[in-house]
Amino acid sequence: MVATTIHLLRHGEVHNPEGVLYGRLPGYHLSERGHAMARMVADHLAGATDVTSATPGAPRDVVAVVASPLQRAQETAAPIAAAFGLAVGTDQRLIEAGNHFQGMTFGVGDGSLRHPNHWPYLRNPFRPSWGEPYRDQVDRMLAAVDTAREAARGHEAVLVSHQLPVWVTRLALEGRRLWHDPRRRQCSVASLTSLVFEDDRLVRISYTQPAAALLPGASTVAGA
């Protein structure tokens, strides 16, 4: 059997002092801590550190690094690609989910939810009605995974994406319902959701946080 691993990496922390739901808007880059997170992931994958023991580990067999076209994903991918002597590829299918509330603060009080004209977008949380359907996100993400798996067959690839697309993809692969409580997502900034295949069969999903030491106080704005 041929073993192939596809790592779905959520980008690092973003500089977002206004606390808006930035979605697919251009110009949102990694914070200083976000860049440090990206370097920690690169070190982890290259064998400089082991997430479980903080000691040198075996380097991963990464032969491809592909990212969402958004700046925060490209910046997260850069040190990983450099660590393996690779160029960063771009795949539109890894982009953040579309969202009606993009560019707004989301909440009551001074947030967008105080305005009745936004309320119809909340009518169906199962689809969801405020943005790109969960199923559509899963379909495009799995298509990107299949492309990467063919390109990296027998090796490993890193795909840098965003919290919601990564999380609903994991839910789908685990046979769970796609609608969920956002507060219960296991997909922190700079985390790895790793899909292990034997030939074309998915045999294992694992989750690691190489930059866990930098997580306290990290941004948790929904849709990041």
TrEMBL record:
InterPro entries to which the protein is assigned, alphabetical: His_Pase_superF_clade-1, His_PPase_superfam, PGM_Phosphatase
- One Pfam family hit: His_Phos_1
> SUPFAM superfamilies from the xrefs?
Phosphoglycerate mutase-like
* Coiled-coil intervals: none
Q: Name one GO molecular function term.
A: phosphatase activity
Q: Which GO terms describe its cellular component?
A: cytoplasm
What is the name of the protein in this document? Answer: Phosphoglycerate mutase
Organism the protein comes from: Cellulomonas chitinilytica
